């Protein structure tokens, strides 16, 4: 394969953090690679049998549930959980197919499939007066969860939403995402190109400044790509990222009367700021906080500023 082709494939399959949480240097954390403290598994019934969802649960008080983005895991929330667990119950969940959660080959990896599991998780954990925080794809799942629970409950357990650089509308997909959605090409790309090379290239796309990327993050986001099940879950999620029913869900935004804080990086190249302004307009009780000098991951590139924005919102 010619060198130019290798470089093109590298760019195409650097999807590890498209719509994903990455990481930044903020403080040492117990969320380091391979650590499983405060971790629990919850059992769910699937079309191919039971499977487990992993979550980290720390602190006491009113609960905050953190939902990561595409190809990320609970590691992305380490700064948020470290801070908010001081006075809240902070729960970071690994979506099905990601992190320490099971990765069943059942084909059910759409936004609405994941939202159904999050709704069940909230019920199983008896979470009430809940703040749900979603980043990127996790933001879309948070929105879909809020819509589901509003329909199924007289009083929704979700009291507030925080949507961080959130996917919410159909949008043009980058070439590498299109490649991931292409049968055959996707499997070749995620298998042939070294996992750490994929992760590093993706982090460079997601971060505003390359020098902010910690080596630990490269290792953490490369790890799932070494598993065949993890690679397949990544591909399935990419293929289903534009889900049937998205138009109907968007139409429900106007009925979602939940106080919502939108937090967006000004220089997001993955989910542009204009999408955030549209979402602010479509949601009846939303306000926008723009974070300067970051790309797609304010909770990791600018954790102090993100924490401040969230705490001001929670104190309202």
Write the SSE topology:
Blueprint: H1 3-12, E1 39-46, E2 49-58, E3 63-67, H2 78-84, E4 89-93, H3 111-124, E5 130-135, H4 137-152, E6 158-164, H5 175-180, H6 185-192, H7 195-206, H8 215-222, H9 228-239, H10 246-251, E7 260-265, H11 273-282, E8 286-291, H12 298-301, H13 303-314
Parallel strand pairs: 3-4, 3-5, 5-6, 6-7, 7-8
Antiparallel strand pairs: 1-2, 2-4
Helix pairs in contact: 3-4, 7-8
Indicate the percent of residues in helices: 25-40%
Total domains: 1
Text of the CATH class: Alpha Beta
Specify the CATH architecture.
Answer: 3-Layer(aba) Sandwich
The total of beta strands comes to 8
Order of helices and strands: HEEEHEHEHEHHHHHHEHEHH
Structure, described:
With 316 residues, this protein is an alpha/beta fold. It has a single domain (3-314), classed as Alpha/Beta hydrolase fold, catalytic domain (Rossmann fold). It is built from 13 helices and eight strands. It has helices at 3-12, 78-84, 111-124, 137-152, 175-180, 185-192, 195-206, 215-222, 228-239, 246-251, 273-282, 298-301, 303-314; strands at residues 39-46, 49-58, 63-67, 89-93, 130-135, 158-164, 260-265, 286-291. Strands 1-2-4-3-5-6-7-8 form an eight-stranded mixed sheet, sandwiched between helices. Helix 2 (78-84) links the parallel strand 3 (63-67) and strand 4 (89-93). The longest helix is centred in the middle third of the chain and has 16 residues, at 137-152. Residues 1-36 have low confidence and may be disordered.
């Amino acid at each position: 394969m010619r060198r130019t082709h290798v470089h093109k494939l590298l760019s195409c399959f650097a999807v590890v953090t498209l719509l994903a949480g990455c990481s930044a240097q903020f403080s040492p954390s117990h969320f380091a690679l391979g650590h499983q403290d405060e971790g629990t598994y919850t059992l769910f019934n699937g079309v191919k049998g039971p499977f487990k969802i992993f979550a980290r649960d720390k602190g006491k008080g009113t609960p905050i549930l953190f939902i990561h983005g595409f190809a990320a895991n609970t590691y992305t929330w380490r700064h948020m959980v470290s801070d908010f667990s001081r006075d809240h119950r902070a729960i970071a969940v690994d979506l099905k197919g990601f992190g320490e959660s099971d990765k069943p080959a059942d084909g059910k990896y759409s936004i609405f499939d994941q939202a159904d599991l999050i709704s069940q998780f909230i019920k199983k954990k008896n979470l009430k007066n809940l703040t749900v925080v979603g980043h990127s794809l996790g933001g879309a799942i948070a929105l879909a969860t809020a819509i589901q629970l509003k329909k199924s409950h007289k009083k929704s357990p979700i009291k507030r939403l925080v949507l961080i650089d959130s996917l919410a509308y159909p949008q043009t997909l980058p070439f590498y995402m299109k490649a991931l959605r292409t049968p055959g090409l996707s499997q070749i790309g995620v298998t042939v190109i070294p996992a750490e090379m994929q992760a590093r290239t993706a982090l460079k796309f997601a971060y505003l400044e390359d020098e902010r990327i910690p080596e630990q993050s490269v290792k953490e986001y490369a790890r799932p790509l070494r598993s065949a099940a993890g690679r397949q879950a990544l591909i399935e999620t990419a293929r289903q990222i534009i889900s049937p029913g998205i138009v109907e869900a968007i139409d429900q935004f106007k009925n979602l009367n939940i106080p919502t804080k939108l937090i967006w990086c000004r220089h997001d190249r993955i989910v542009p700021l204009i999408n955030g302004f549209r979402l602010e307009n479509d949601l009846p009780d939303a306000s926008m906080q723009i974070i300067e000098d970051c790309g797609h991951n304010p909770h990791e590139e600018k954790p102090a500023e993100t924490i401040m924005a969230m705490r001001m919102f929670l104190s309202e």
